[in-house]
From TrEMBL:
Occurrences of domain Methyltransferase (ranges): 69-160
Protein's recorded name: Methyltransferase like 27
Organism taxonomic ancestry: Eukaryota, Metazoa, Chordata, Craniata, Vertebrata
Parts of the chain that traverse the membrane: none
Length: 245
């Protein structure tokens, strides 16, 4: 097994990934990165999978072992590892990178894994299938477009939960603004309600000094992020339908 990359090398690699906005190039990048992905993001102290699963766990009712969970843009399965550690067992995953799915399959935590490029094709599940849907770390330019958010809602059971994350560092703020406009439109249409919008200061180590946000000291060197948690309305409504009463 090859030695792990140094922190400067990891920062350069992840910084390069943030700069790829073409989806085909991004997916190829992830295919190549997949074998070393876990150790590289660990070097950056990437906390989003644990924080997102904690947020979901606090809000999801019922026995955890029986909840059917979809991990969208599942990558190597870091979110599944956090879910499994908290007692969730019914896990499905989708990702657009065959290389990432190979790594996820090797973990043995998913009951079902599917290749799916969200934004270009629908999720491979009927409507109203899952108790909860998560998408952690894929909401940025060149990955999952904001226009794909209603597809997450479609496969969520009425009353089910959708947990999303995105970075709030300077290079991602334009995407975050567009994302929140999409989230708000769906809420105003009565499709779901926001339960949590939780800013997180220490999301992961910045890839450069330019990525460190205002108020964050250079010695800390972390970028910020945010976790959103929504509950799909129990009453079935067409997306973009009349606002809830």
């Amino acid at each position: 097994m090859a030695e792990g990359r140094s922190l400067p090398e990891v920062r350069a690699l992840v910084g390069a990934s943030h700069g790829i906005t073409d989806l085909a190039h991004k997916l190829h990048f992830y295919d190549q990165w997949a074998p070393n992905y876990d150790q590289d993001v660990a070097a950056l102290q990437y906390r989003a999978p644990r924080l997102a699963v904690d947020c979901l766990t606090q809000a999801l009712p019922g026995p955890r072992h029986a909840a059917l969970i979809l991990d969208v843009a599942c990558g190597t399965g870091l979110v599944a590892a956090e879910l499994q550690a908290r007692g969730f067992r019914q896990l499905h995953g989708v990702d657009g990178s065959p290389g990432m799915l190979d790594q996820a399959r090797a973990r043995g935590l998913y009951q079902c894994l599917s290749l799916c490029t969200l934004g270009q094709e629908p999720l491979p599940s009927p409507g109203g299938t899952f108790d909860a849907v998560l998408m952690v770390g894929a909401l940025s330019d060149g990955q999952v477009p904001c226009s794909a958010i209603p597809e997450l809602l479609r496969v969520t059971k009425p009353g089910g939960l959708v947990c999303l994350t995105t970075r709030t560092n300077p290079s991602n703020l334009q995407y975050k603004e567009a994302l929140e406009a999409t989230l708000d439109r769906l809420e105003q249409a009565g499709a779901w309600e926001c339960l949590v919008a939780r800013p997180v200061d220490r999301w992961e180590l910045a890839t450069s000094e330019l990525e460190v946000g205002p108020g964050t000291s250079d010695s800390d060197g972390f970028i910020s992020g945010i976790i959103y948690l929504y509950r799909k309305q129990a009453a079935a409504q067409a997306e973009g339908g009349r606002p809830g009463a």
